[in-house]
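During the reporting period the student researcher (J.K.) took over the structure-prediction task from the postdoctoral fellow and processed the backlog of single-chain submissions. One of the processed entries is reproduced below for the supervisory committee.
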Amino acid sequence: MALVSLTAVSQACPDRPGAWSWLLGGPGIFCNNKNLTSIPDGIPASTTYLTLRHNQIVTIETRKLQRLHSLIWLDIDNNEITSILSQTFAGLQSLQILRLNGNKISVIEPRSFTSLKNLTHLDIRNNQITSVLNQTFAGLRNLQWLHLKNNTISDVEWGSFQHLQNLTELHIENNEITTIFSKTFAGLRNLKQLYLNGNHIKDMQPGGFQHLQELTTLRLDNNRLKTLPNDIFSTLHKLRILYLSHNQITTLAHDIFVGLNQLSELNLSYNSLTVIPSSVANLTSLRDFQMAHNDITAFSPGMFSNSSIQKWDLSYNNITMIQEGTFSSRFSYQGTFLLNNNHLETLPSTLCDLTSDFSLTLSNNPWSCDCRMRRILDCPNLKDKIICRSPPVLNNIKLSDLTKNDLNCSPPTIDHISSTVHQTVVGDNATVYCNATGFNRPTLTWSRTIAQPTRGRSEMPHYEISTWNLGYNSAESSLTITDVQMSEQGHYTCHASNSVGEDLRSFSLFVIPVKAETTPSKIGTQTVPSFFFRLDTTQGYRVPHVVPAVGGAVGAVVLCTLLGLICFRHKRRQQTEDKPSYHPSIRERLHGTHHPYADHFEEEEGYDDVLVPDRREIPGEESTEGHQYQSLLLETRDHNYTALWREDATFDDQDAYRRQEEDRDGPECSQGDMAEEAAKPEESDDEPTHSYQNIPHDDDYYNFPTVRDV
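J.K. obtained the following structure tokens:
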């Protein structure tokens, strides 16, 4: 019977049974590429190796496998299997390797592998699995190798790997995972290699790798990371290989690699990093450091004190200079330093002291053959690697073919600054450009001198500085202040410097408030506008400007006042035709100056445009009548004006005065009288007057002893 069964299998699988028995330690059945739609019947129970690759098998039938108690290796790669059901592999207690790669598996029921107590390798690559559930791998206590690459896994439940205490290698690359949680890898206490590359990871919670204390290899390349938690690697003391390339990382904490004393390979290439984390210099076991294709512009002098690194790859960055002292002769550098395809124009002379065992790759840099290169002419290991890019007359000439007389410089000159006086409104943006020339090309920087603090909210200024190289000997820089506030008012200076000199040019920024602020001042029940100050650009002092009231109210007040004065002057002229036209000035009333017509005016207290009390005190002093007087100084570019009022005066006092005037002067004139009087020309025998805003004023009224012309 056994012979007949074996013959039937041989007909279905023409491969010679037992051909690999000597290698596998038992009989094997090979049914690859036979267009089988199901697992064949009659497989000997003693079979240890069964391969059914590249067929069209849709379902794994439990009854055809459960009696294969000696089976060690089962390979069903590249078939049409869609699901793994519970108890599918019941009875396969000896199975160690299970390969299901390249099927269409989308569903794996919980506890489907529970009976595989001795399984060490499980390969489910290239399927359609979307999630890993908590009980998916339950029972696989001896599993060492798990391959889930190239699925569509986006969800890994917490504790999904907690049963895999002996797992050493986990491949989940090229899936759709977006987040690593703090308990995603809980239970993997013996894991040594973790491959998460090629996912969509953009968020990593702190403690995501805290359970992986035996980890030696971690691949996080080709994800969407922009930053990492500061302590994400703090427990990985045995880590040797770390790949973070092809992400979107812009910043890393300077101490993020502290404690990784066994790290030998670190790859940060193809990111957007602008600074090399300082902790790299303390990685004493590091041999291979790759940071190509980033935005590094410079590095600190102590960065390369770690002489154990044999390969530094900083190619394809934006490095513009290497400072003196970056490389020290105290260290014995060996290996290769890749600086090709950067923006280097010169090199520090300390590189001349490096041994011949240290190789520099310097191609495709815009070398500027100026006076700074004179010291490099004495470096036999460098001068043959530098091909001049500028000045144009030395383009494509090797540095080794030049002499020191060919290498010259010129001091910088600021040719243009877009505005020496810039005025803007609070909340707007202000931008100024500065252009300079010189050889070597000048470096442009900005400084600020703050004006005296003014009103308005004070916030940290928002500065945006951009610089462009316009040629081998010219550069331009822009300074933009966004959301300008009053505190940004002041002087700003553009500095241009190169190896042989410096030049500077300044501009003044004036900030205008959006609207006037008012401070209540008691004049009856009215208010007086407060003052804003601006920094004068030519005189160097501050000029006060009254913020005027705007609107129809001002015009109405002026018009009414004008008509009232015309009417009042008309009445006064009729009453005093036979009397000398004289009005005592405020100066006389203040100081009691005698006048020949004083008796005539003894009973009169009314004047053209002011009510004068019997006695006036110096502003701020208490009068004999118990009244407190204040003054307001109003200044313009040409004149000063002082308004005098009584602290306790009210509109009731004004009404009383108006009634007193009406009783004395008679009924008010009509509008027709005022219009007729306004049309009449001024008589020549009147006292000379001048007007401000079309309102006549008595000269003596404004001649206070304390008033001075500006």
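The committee noted the following: The first strand starts at residue 28 and ends at 30.
J.K. will present the remaining backlog at the next meeting.
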